[in-house]
Structure formats: C-alpha cells, structure tokens
C-alpha cells in the first residue's frame, strides 16, 4: 500500500507519518510539505501540480493547514480552502481510490447543551472565525465532490483539539503569541483559573489521532468519524491539574480582554475564535470505536500534563512548524537582530 500525506511536518502530520510507517500493511509513505524537511517531498498544495505526487497512491491523507496569519484571512483561505480543493481534485484526477481528510470539531454547527453530537450533526461552523468558516466550507465542497466523483472512498475525521509535547511551542506561537511564557502554566504558580460558563473542550493526543488516521487508511471505511478522548476539559479540570481554584468570570469580560489584546497585536488568536470555541458541541465517538476499532491510549489528563510540561520546557521537534523558538525569543528579549 502506498500512502501520500500532505502537511507531513506539522503536529498531526509527524504523528501520522510515524504511525503509517510502523504499520506492516503500509509499504510506502510519501510525506509532502511546503517547507523542506529530511525525508519529505517539498510540495505546496496551494501552488504545485499535485497529480504526479498522487498518481499510483492507494490513499491520500490530507492534513496540510495554515493557522496564521489570522490577520489576513484571505491568505489562510487561499492556502486552506483553495489548497484543499486542489488536493481533492488532484485525488480524482490521479485516480486515487481513497481520500482521508482531517476536518475538525470546528466544522460543526453550534450547540448550547452538553449532549454529544454524532457525525450527522450539521457542519456549518461558526461564521465569526476564519478557521471554522474554512472547515465548514470544505465540508460542503466534499459533499459536492462525492457526488461528482463517487469512486474515491472519502473519510472525514473530525477531531477535538490535538495536543502533544512536541507541538507545545508551535501552539503557543500560533494562539498565545511569543510574549506568553510557558512557565506560567507550572502547577502552583497560577492561583486561579477563570471559569467561563460554556467554555469547555474535548481534546485528543496526536498519537491517538494518528492511530485513527491509520485505521481509516487501512480499513474499508468511508464517511465521517468523531475523534476525541475523555474527560471533557473545563475550568475545574484545568484548576485541578494546576493546583488552582476556579473563579467565575463572564464570557463578555474574557472576550473583551482577548479583543483588546488582539487590537494591540499582543496575541495572534482572534476574538472570533473565542466565540467559536464557546459554541462547540461535544463529540460522540462511538462510531470510531465500533468501525475503526479505535481506543485512545491517552486520556485528557495525561495529554494535557504532557503538553503543559512541553510548554514549560519550550519543547519542539526538528521540523519547521514544530521547531522550538528559544533563539527567536532571545532575539526579542535582547533586541539582537532587530532592524534599526
């Protein structure tokens, strides 16, 4: 079996490539990424001809995604939406029998209660954030793609938030910014955790999501699968991990703080993304358990502990997206390399 993986050097991609290469049923794994990396083919889904890379593949796994620059949504739209459309169309043109695509919990329409949703819940996203708009749009495009091209088996994985130690620095860069030190998340250092009504999330370890992708690649399945582990992460859960106590804070206060930091360019995450997270549903993962025989090996507590330890250590990996930024932080703090 020959598998091509786009976005092979990111948080999810590194895990997926490793999981596939460890499976004896998979003979060849070809990783694609827009920036050079050892053992990876350099190809940009937004610009390059993908058909030659896909021709002869049994499965294409599409993971490539650009989270930043959030201040230029037209840029992420070109990379994420138009780039993904090019991937899907190249799969059809190359005659690839199966496409596995990592969508997201962010594709789902809002829900105001805690009843977990199955894969038939509407996927219209939250319109106020670029990430959720883009994920929802691609769900609609794949609906039409499957009508136009009934032959490729299309699998959509919709995971919760994906964490691992090696991605800690990258995710701090993407969502908190370079001025938020990882040392702040040391147990005992933060006395309180804001308890915002409705703010809770489901997460999954990168290795567990990678195993779900591997199962989707090697099993005769199609359709959508929710991927998340338990328990649900909320303020009380986080406070227990950090040895802190919770304090009720209105969502409007937190949003105003995020908006102010966004206007000051202090954080890269938009207030619209905060709005979207407040409205995310919880996921029912029973289909993945029954049809993919998927069981997560890491629960939410272990996953977050590993991730927080990675934040404190400035952990990363030897690919461009996951590279630790100690050198860059030193330049910011000292002014070294700053243009006059």
- Counting DSSP E segments of at least 2 residues, the number of strands comes to 12
> Would you tell me the structural class of the helices and strands?
alpha/beta
User: Overall mean pLDDT score?
Assistant: 92
**What name does the CATH topology carry?**
Rossmann fold
Q: Tell me the CATH superfamily.
A: NAD(P)-binding Rossmann-like Domain
Q: How many structural domains can be distinguished in the coordinates?
A: 1
Helix content bin: 40-55%
Strand order of the largest sheet: 3-2-1-4-5-6-10
Per CATH, which architecture? 3-Layer(aba) Sandwich
Count of separate DSSP helical elements: 12
**Rg, alpha carbons:** 20 Å
Could you name the CATH class?
A: Alpha Beta
First-residue to last-residue Cα separation: 54 Å
Uncertain segments = 327-340
| Main sheet: strands, sense, barrel | 7 strands, parallel
Order of helices and strands: EHEEHEHEHEEHEEHEEHEHHHHH
């Amino acid at each position: 079996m020959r598998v091509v993986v786009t976005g092979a050097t990111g948080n999810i991609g590194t895990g997926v490539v490793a999981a596939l290469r460890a499976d004896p049923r998979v003979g060849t794994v070809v990783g694609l990424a827009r920036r050079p990396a050892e053992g990876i083919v350099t190809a940009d889904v937004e610009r390059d001809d993908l058909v030659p890379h896909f021709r002869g593949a049994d499965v294409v796994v599409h993971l490539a995604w650009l989270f930043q620059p959030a201040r230029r949504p037209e840029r992420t739209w070109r990379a994420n939406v138009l780039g993904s459309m090019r991937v899907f169309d190249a799969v059809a043109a190359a005659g690839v029998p199966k496409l596995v695509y990592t969508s997201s919990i962010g594709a789902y329409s809002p829900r105001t209660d805690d009843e977990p949703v199955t894969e038939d819940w509407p996927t219209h996203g939250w319109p106020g954030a670029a990430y959720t708009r883009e994920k929802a749009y691609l769900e609609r495009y794949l609906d039409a793609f499957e009508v136009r091209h009934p032959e490729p088996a299309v699998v959509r994985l919709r995971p919760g938030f994906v964490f691992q130690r090696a991605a800690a620095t990258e995710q701090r860069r993407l969502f908190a910014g370079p001025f938020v030190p990882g040392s702040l998340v040391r147990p005992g250092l933060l006395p309180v955790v804001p308890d915002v009504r409705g703010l809770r999330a489901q997460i999954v370890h990168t290795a567990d999501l990678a195993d779900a992708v591997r199962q989707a690649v090697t099993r005769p399945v199609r359709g959508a699968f929710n991927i998340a582990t338990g328990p649900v992460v909320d303020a009380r859960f986080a406070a227990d991990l950090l040895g802190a106590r919770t304090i009720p804070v209105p969502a409007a206060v937190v949003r105003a703080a995020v908006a102010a930091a966004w206007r000051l360019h202090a954080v890269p995450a938009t207030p619209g993304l905060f709005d979207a997270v407040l409205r995310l549903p919880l996921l029912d993962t029973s289909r993945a358990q029954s049809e993919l025989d998927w069981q997560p090996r890491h629960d939410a507590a272990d996953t977050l502990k590993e991730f927080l330890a990675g934040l404190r250590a400035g952990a990363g990996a030897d690919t461009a997206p996951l590279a630790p930024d100690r050198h860059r932080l030193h330049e910011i703090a000292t002014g070294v390399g700053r243009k006059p």
